[in-house]
Design a protein that fits this description.
Length: 191
C-alpha cells in the first residue's frame, strides 16, 4: 500500500515505477473540499475512474464518517448563518429577493440530506468499492493502539483515531488480498 499526503509523495511513488490502480479518500479530503462533490478535484477524479485508469476503494467506516461530518458541518455553519441573520437589521428592510432569500432560515436536516445524497451519487457514479470492516480482527488495531503506531499518536488523541485505524486495516488487507497498489489520500498527520 502506498500512502500519499502531498505532491512530493506522488513524485516519489512515480519515481519508484509504481502503477496505481486504486485510490482511497479519507474523510478529511471531503471535509477540506466542503463536500464539493461536483468541484474541480472530484470531477477530475471521476474522469480517471470512468476512463478505467483508477478505481475508488472506500471503507464503510469512512462512508459513515463522511456523512456524520456532513451533518456536523451543516449544523455548525447554520449556527453561523443564523447569527448573521439575527444580527442583520438593514438587510431585513431590503426588498431585493436575493436578500430575502439569504435571510431565510434553512432546515439543517434538508441541507445535510442533500449533501449526503450527493455523496451517495458520487459513490454510485464512481462505482466505488465499499469495504466491510465488521470481519476485521481487532487484534491488529489494538497492537497499533498500545504501541502508539500510526494512526495512533499521543494518549490524548488515540481514542479519536479508531475509525481511521479500522479503515487503514481494511484497506491494507484489501490491497494485500488483491495484490493492488493504492494511494490513500488524507489530510491527517498520522502517516
Amino acid at each position: 500500500m502506498i500512502l500519499i499526503r502531498s505532491n512530493s509523495a506522488t513524485i516519489i511513488a512515480m519515481a519508484n515505477n509504481v502503477i496505481v490502480e486504486a485510490v482511497s479518500l479519507d474523510t478529511q479530503v471531503f471535509v477540506a473540499t466542503g463536500f464539493g462533490f461536483n468541484g474541480k478535484s472530484f470531477r477530475s477524479l471521476k474522469q480517471h475512474i470512468v476512463a478505467g485508469r483508477l478505481r475508488l476503494v472506500m471503507t464503510e467506516v469512512t462512508v459513515k464518517e463522511v456523512k456524520t461530518r456532513i451533518r456536523l458541518s451543516v449544523a455548525e455553519e447554520l449556527v453561523s448563518q443564523r447569527s448573521f441573520v439575527n444580527g442583520s437589521k438593514a438587510l431585513f428592510n431590503s426588498s431585493l429577493p436575493d436578500v430575502q432569500t439569504a435571510l431565510k432560515k434553512l432546515d439543517p436536516e434538508a441541507v445535510a440530506q442533500d449533501l449526503c445524497d450527493q455523496f451517495d451519487a458520487f459513490l454510485v457514479e464512481t462505482k466505488a468499492t465499499i469495504l466491510d470492516v465488521t470481519e476485521l480482527s481487532v487484534g491488529d488495531v489494538f497492537e497499533k493502539y498500545f504501541a502508539g503506531e500510526p494512526p495512533f499518536g499521543n494518549a490524548e488523541t488515540k481514542k479519536h483515531e479508531f475509525p481511521d485505524a479500522f479503515a487503514i486495516q481494511a484497506l491494507a488487507e484489501y490491497t494485500e488480498e488483491n495484490d493492488l497498489p493504492m494511494f490513500v489520500v488524507s489530510g491527517d498527520q498520522f502517516f
